[in-house]
Write a structure and sequence with these properties.
3 helices; 6-stranded antiparallel β-barrel; 233 residues; mainly beta; 3-stranded antiparallel beta sheet; single chain
């Protein structure tokens, strides 16, 4: 299958996923309870189109305490009904780049500011450094461990004008026969969950992951019909 056709299939699958009953567009409430919540009671009180799931996070006060909460996903959410498409750049094979991955000591973390933490940071495990050359400049990137995958949170010169203002995400793939080689296919850069619902708290790109050049590849922004605004919903 040509790479452009494979990319088109990936993009179509992304649009289906974000509009699914528990996709990014369906998250209508994140309720932090502190202690373990009564999820059965929450499910019993929810409407027929709503699914309730547990969530937890580490407090940003440095105590290491675990905070619990609930997420409410509505298959009939206003954002799903208003969703038109994810605007994206045309596929461009020149944005499929190779880098070098160097593992670091287990447990090394990097502080990531999050969009809803009012300047606070959360330490995320970064299992290694990614060396990448882009537009003649060398970078050392920090991609954190997201369920066993390397997730790069990056910013570039298109943010706020052509692409989502807070940056974009990209899963970094290890090369099949050389774990120190990684593939960064920026055609699969995607709008983070906080671009679909105001109920998410996404990490922001650290300084090392901000490119001063435009990365015109991957997803741009989420397009809604009739002037729908996730922050006003």
């Amino acid at each position: 299958m040509p790479a452009s056709d494979d990319h088109a299939r990936w993009h179509a699958a992304r649009e289906r996923a974000v509009a699914s009953p528990t996709g990014n567009l369906s998250l209508v409430e994140t309720r932090w309870t502190g202690e373990l919540p009564d999820i059965d009671a929450a499910r019993a009180a929810a409407s027929a189109t709503v699914e309730v799931t547990p969530i937890q996070r580490t407090a940003i006060d440095g105590s290491g305490a675990v905070e619990h909460g609930l997420r409410f996903w509505d298959a009939d959410a206003p954002a799903i009904r208003a969703f038109d498409r994810i605007d994206a750049y045309p596929y461009d094979p020149t944005w499929v780049l190779e880098g070098t991955f160097t593992p670091v000591a287990e447990g090394r973390t990097v502080p990531f500011e999050h969009i809803r933490d009012n300047g606070g940071t959360r330490d995320l495990v970064v299992p290694g450094d990614i060396a990448l050359t882009l537009d003649g400049r060398d970078y050392t990137l920090a991609a954190f461990d997201d369920g066993g995958k390397l997730l790069l949170v990056f910013g570039d010169a298109t943010n706020g004008d052509e692409t989502y203002g807070a940056g974009r995400f990209l899963f970094v793939e290890h090369h099949a026969d050389d774990p120190q080689r990684v593939i960064l296919d920026f055609n699969r850069a995607f709008v983070p969950p906080c671009g679909f619902s105001a109920q998410y708290n996404c990490p922001l790109p650290p300084a090392s992951n901000r490119f001063p050049v435009p990365v015109r590849a991957g997803e741009k922004t989420v397009v809604f019909r009739d002037g729908f605004d996730i922050y006003a919903a």
